[in-house]
Automatic annotation (TrEMBL):
It comes from Flavobacterium tibetense. InterPro entries: 6-blade_b-propeller_TolB-like (IPR011042), B-propeller_Phytase (IPR003431). The lineage of its organism: Bacteria, Pseudomonadati, Bacteroidota, Flavobacteriia, Flavobacteriales. Residues 14-344 form the BPP domain. Gene3D superfamilies: TolB, C-terminal domain. One of its GO terms (molecular function) is inositol hexakisphosphate 3-phosphatase activity. This is 3-phytase. It comes from the Bacteria.
Amino acid sequence: MNKLKVVLFSIVILVSCKDKLAPIAKNAIQPKIITEKTPHDTDDPAIWIHPTNASNSLIIGTDKDSNGGLYLYDLNGKIIKKSIPLKRPNNVDVAYKLKVGNTTLDIAVTTERETNKIRIFSLPNLEPIDNGGIEVFEGETERNPMGIALYTRPSDGEIFAIVGRKNGPSGSYLWQYQLESKNGVVQAKIIRKFGNYSGKKEIEAIAVDNELGFVYYSDEQIGIRKYFADPSKNDNNEIAIFGQNDFKSDNEGIAIYKKTESTGYILVSNQQANTFVVYTREENSNQKNKHIKIAEIPVSTIECDGADATSINLNKDFSKGMLVAMSNGMTFHYYDWNLIQKEIDKQKD
């Protein structure tokens, strides 16, 4: 290819990228902390809250590569540990007090795409407790696990993993597994298959609201779908779909900020616009199970895939909690919730 063709080709690429991705807004909220870089490609974070000292809480993030892994970060963004090597870990979630033998363990669970498994690690030491991993979507031609969220049933503390994949049939796109231990090793049994899928792009981001009992997932370029999280309800019908006209292109990472047991916000990454669209966590009183858009927050993350949030007072920098968001550049950004709330209040007014 001669020099003129190279220049023209580069211009075409730049124009194409510019059309798809918005620049960072001048009024974008800046993160309090940007983490140290991983070697490959960050994708999704989860927040683990320390049981006795919130200032010792940790962020768990995926580094999505064939030689990737889970990374533990402290609240200053420093990498403090890497897991054993994993084959393209995609998304990750955290749950507390899984019954293992005569004790309970906090856990991080991630999808491992190249092995068609989920991997389970104890927290905060990030050691595997799954005997090499648990196969998912067995017997299916479409496997390739991507999204994951953990549901803890309030009535009995049982923990379930809801797993998504790159492609799959509508109506049984998501599989739900109950986690249990045998001889100190965590296992999983399939108990439910559900979830509509448009076929437009893919489903990666999944989030569960334990207190209210709902699971949300991003059907990219379509909207956010809502279902009951508890399999004992025997109800696989879609409750609602919202956010269908609120995104530039892909609706991606979902974070739930809980102000009380039943109020707060659902934040969804507007990936190509570099913003988060904010919905009420509580349902619209006039339209049951609908969630109202109340704000759109410009942030400095670039093409955010995954996000998580907490309202726990972590330290002086995050007195009302934080939003953690993946960004291009192999990092995660920690946002002071006070700044997010200020912007929400301004737009609501």
